[in-house]
Amino acid sequence: MDWLKELLKKAGFDESKIDGLIGDVNKELPKHFVPKSQYNDLSDTKKKLEKDITERDTQLETLSKDAGASETLKAEIARLQGENKTAADKYAADLKDMTLTNAITAALNGKVHNEKVVTGMIDKNKLVIGDDGKVVGLDEQLKGLQTSDAYLFKPEDIGVGSGGTGGFRVGGAGGGSAGAATNEQLAGIFGVADTK
């Protein structure tokens, strides 16, 4: 309290009275004032708490933004998952259609007059691809079409073993190999002289 003594001396107080006054001030001062060390401690604590509150506020703002971003991110993830599922379903459907189309094409190869027409008449929804990759139900539909729309199918070779090719023969009498025209007969029909 030397600083108070110096102030009182400058103010013109008597030194004998200053000591008594300082004693009274020392008794009353702690009731009304906080010591400087305690003030500094409290001030430092207050600054630290204000800094902590600011940091917490910043963290809360960041968390709130992250929570919002999280919702946005969740929505984006859900959208992408939906698109991926749609793409996977489309891929599976396209693969199934391609497999069925290839199986139908292989089954019809060389057996029909117009492959596109017959392919269009086959109901792909009734066909099932087995675990072994074979198409179930195709043979039944083809047999049904051969019965109901036989004109779409080429006649099967008959009499291959007897030398005939079956079907229409030029200049033939309509049966077996006996009806096949010779070169001389054809030359006569078309008016071409024999070059032999």
What does this structure look like?
This protein is an all-alpha fold and 196 residues long. It has helices at 2-10, 15-32, 36-108, 115-121, 138-148, 183-190, and strands spanning 128-129, 135-136. It is 64% helix and 2% strand. It is rod-shaped.
Give the helix/strand layout.
Elements: H1 2-10, H2 15-32, H3 36-108, H4 115-121, E1 128-129, E2 135-136, H5 138-148, H6 183-190
Antiparallel strand pairs: 1-2
Helix pairs in contact: 1-2
What's this entry about, in short?
This protein has six helices and two strands, in the order H-H-H-H-E-E-H-H. The chain has 196 residues and is mainly α.
List keywords for this structure.
single chain; 196 residues; mainly alpha; two-stranded antiparallel ribbon; 6 helices; 2 strands; 64% helix; 2% strand
